[in-house]
Amino acid sequence: MAALCISFLFLLLFCLVFSLPTGRNSICGYKSCPATNPSMLNVHLVPHTHDDVGWLKTVDQYYYGDRNYIQHAGVQYILDSVIDQLQKDPARRFIYVETAFFYRWWRQQSQDTRRIVTQLVNEGRLEFINGGWCMSDEATTHYSAVIDQMTLGLRFLNDTFGECGRPLVAWHIDPFGHAREHASIFAQMGYDGFFFGRLDYQDKARRMKTKEMEMLWRASESLTPPLADLFTVFQILP
Fold first, then answer.
1. Strand, helix or coil for residue 95
2. 3-state secondary structure string, 174-213?
3. Cα of 161 vs its chain's centroid, Å
4. What is the DSSP letter of 127?
5. How many of the other CB atoms lie within 10 Å of CB of 132?
6. What is d(CA 46, CA 173) in angstroms, rounded to the nearest whole number?
7. Does 174 participate in catalysis according to the annotation?
């Protein structure tokens, strides 16, 4: 019964959050991906950024770049430079994760800048990944808090960009450890895949040796497959 209730909550969240149509001239999503060559090894470079919504510094200090002697980070300057560089080359792509920072930056922009950003999103050149207010912890968070913060971020992206603002994959490169229940949440929310970066070093070494750095994660014993199945990729980080 608990699993059915949670599944209903996810379905309701998904229907409420993503209700706007895609823009008429949009080519976002998988349609915007560069063409690959099946006769060659195709290497996908994913330019991205990540700053915690509060960790070694406060949210304000991360955003404005204060107290860089603690950690060198100024999120507003990252977003400024990304938008500038994306305009200079149509082949460039960038993904962004933490909606909390983007929301603050967006509110400070002119209408001209907002139109430019909307065009980049509609063309698939600026893509939102994960989409929650933050990249939540998986070890100590309750599922209701995870749903709340995901709803807050996804609602803003939907209201601002419509279907092109919808993240297609979950992205947890920084949480220390991963929970099966979290993968189940992402699967039920309709994500196509899950990328994460931290796993036990022995497990990572074995997977790299056996070429098992990706898998289909069956994230629930009680839900009928494939409701909680999620394609999962272990990122190779330095």
1. strand
2. CCCCCCHHHHHHHHHCCCCEEEECCCCHHHHHHHHHHCCC
3. 15
4. E
5. 26
6. 13
7. yes
Length of the chain, in residues: 238
pLDDT in tens, the chain (238 residues): 434 344 434 433 443 344 434 444 678 999 898 889 999 999 888 899 998 999 999 999 999 999 999 999 999 999 999 999 999 999 999 999 999 999 999 999 999 999 999 999 999 999 999 999 999 999 888 989 999 999 999 999 999 999 999 999 999 998 888 899 999 999 999 999 999 888 888 999 999 999 999 999 999 999 999 999 999 998 766 5
Active-site residue identified among 66, 80, 137, 174 = 174
Type of residue at 68: N
According to DSSP, residue 68 is labeled T
Q: Could you tell me which of 202, 201, 200, 172 has the C-alpha nearest to residue 185?
A: 172
Determine phi and psi for 146, rounding to 5 degrees. -60, -45
Question: Which residues in the chain belong to E strands, given as ranges?
Answer: 94-96, 126-128, 169-172, 193-196, 214-218, 229-234
pTM: 0.85
How many angstroms separate the CA atoms of 124 and 115, rounded?
14
Question: What's the first-to-final CA gap in the chain, in angstroms?
Answer: 43
